[in-house]
C-alpha cells in the first residue's frame, strides 16, 4: 500500500471538533490520538458516577495553570488527590507553622467544579521534615496529634477520605511494621492513636489506611488485613483501606486482585484504589487497566478509583508511560478500556448497545527515515461486526506499508481509510489493531486518527 500526503488536510477536512488532535512534530514517538464516532462521549468521572463511584486523579498545584492539564482534569475526573501538597513536609515544614497554600489551591479548584477531594496523607515516614525525626517520644506524640488535628480541621467538611496512615508495613514476607520515627518511638499503637485523633478532628471524613504491594494476598496485605480486623473488633475508627496499585512488569496486577479487595470489604470497610498506574502501552496496558476497573466494579464496597496523575508527561514514572493520557494529552488505549469497562459510551453516545468503536494511535518502532504506528480499535458496549477507521498523515509523509487491514486513500493521498481484512467482528469492549509504516520525509508529526465508525 502506498500514498502520498498533502499539507493542510486536517483543516480542510474540518476535523477540529473531533477529540483527536495531531501531535507536535516533537511528539512523533510519544503521541497517540483517539477519536470517537460521536461528539457526545462520556467521561471517566461521569461513567464512574453512573456506577456509584468516583474516578479521580492525583494533581499537582503547579500544573493547574497549564490549560490542557486543567481542561483534561476538569473534563474527565470528579475527584482529586493532591500528589504532594498535603504531605507533612509541604504543610508543616517547621513545627506548628502551617502552610496550606498549594493544597488550598487544589481543594479550591476541585470544590469550585464539584469534584471530591481525597486527603493524602497525614502520617507517613516519607516526605517527613527533619524536625519530626529529631523529637523525643512524648514530643513526637503531641506533634503527630497536633499535625493530624490541625490539617484535618483546616479541611473539615471538604475531604471525603483521608489517608490517615500511609505505608506503615514492610515489604517482603515478614508482615512486620516498617521502621519509622512513629513506629520506633511510639510503638505499634501509633496507627490506632492516629485514627482516633483523626476521627475526633473530622468525624465525617472517611479514615483510610493506605499502602502499596498489598494489592494481592501476600504477607504484607495479610498483616494489614489483621490490623483492620483487629481495629474493627475493638472499635478503633477505620472506614477504608486504600490499595495504591502501582503496577509494572515486576509488580503486575495480581491474579487475586478482586478477591483481595473483597476480603477487606468483608471486614466492613470500604476499599479504594488510590494511586493506580500501570506501566506499558497499547493493548497490554489497556487490558491491565480493564482488569483493575472490572475488579473494583465487582466489589460493591469499592467506592472509587484514583489514577496517580493526569498525564504521562508529569507521572512520577514518566518513562513507563503508566497513565491514561499521553504526554500530549491524547487518550490512550488504556483510557478507552477504562471508559468502556465503566460502561461509558465512548463511541456511540447511545444507550443499550449502540454500535460504536474507538480508535487509538500508539507509536511503535522508529528509524532514521520512517516510523511504525499502530491503531487499536475497541468496540463499545456492544459487539460490532464491521469497522472503518480513518487516519490522517501530514505532508510530505507517505504511508508505505500497512498490515492487519485493508487500506484505501482519498484523492489527496493523506487520509487513509482502513477496514478489516476479512471478518471485522469485535466483541463488546474488546480490541483489534492494525499497523502501518510512515516514511517521514522530514516530517515527524504524529498521524491523527480522525474517525472510527462501527456497524
Ligand atoms: O518540588 C520540588 C522541586 O522544587 C525541586 O526542584 C525538585 C528537585 O528534586 O523536587 C521537587 O519535589 C519533588 C516532588 O515529588 C514534586 O515533584 C520531590 O523531590 C520528589 O521526591 C517528589 O516525589 C513524590 C514522591 O511521592 C515522594 O515520595 C512524587 O511526586 C509522588 O508521586 C510520590 O507519591 C507517592 C505517594 O505519595 C505514596 N505512594 C507512592 C507514591 C509514588 O512514589
From TrEMBL:
Record-annotated CBM2 domain positions: 350-455
KW Signal (keyword) present: yes
EC number from the UniProt entry: 3.2.1.8
Stored SMART domains: CBD_II (SM00637), Glyco_10 (SM00633)
Keyword Hydrolase attached: yes
Ranges for domain GH10: 38-341
Record InterPro entries: CBD2, CBM2/CBM3_carb-bd_dom_sf, CBM2_carb-bd_dom_sf, GH, GH10, GH10_AS, GH10_dom
Keyword entries, A-Z: Carbohydrate metabolism, Glycosidase, Hydrolase, Polysaccharide degradation, Signal, Xylan degradation
Gene Ontology terms, MF aspect: endo-1,4-beta-xylanase activity; polysaccharide binding
Signal peptide (from-to): 1-25
Family (UniProt): Belongs to the glycosyl hydrolase 10 (cellulase F) family.
PANTHER family recorded: BETA-XYLANASE, GLYCOSYL HYDROLASE
Protein name per its UniProtKB record: Beta-xylanase
Organism whose genome encodes this protein: Streptomyces daliensis
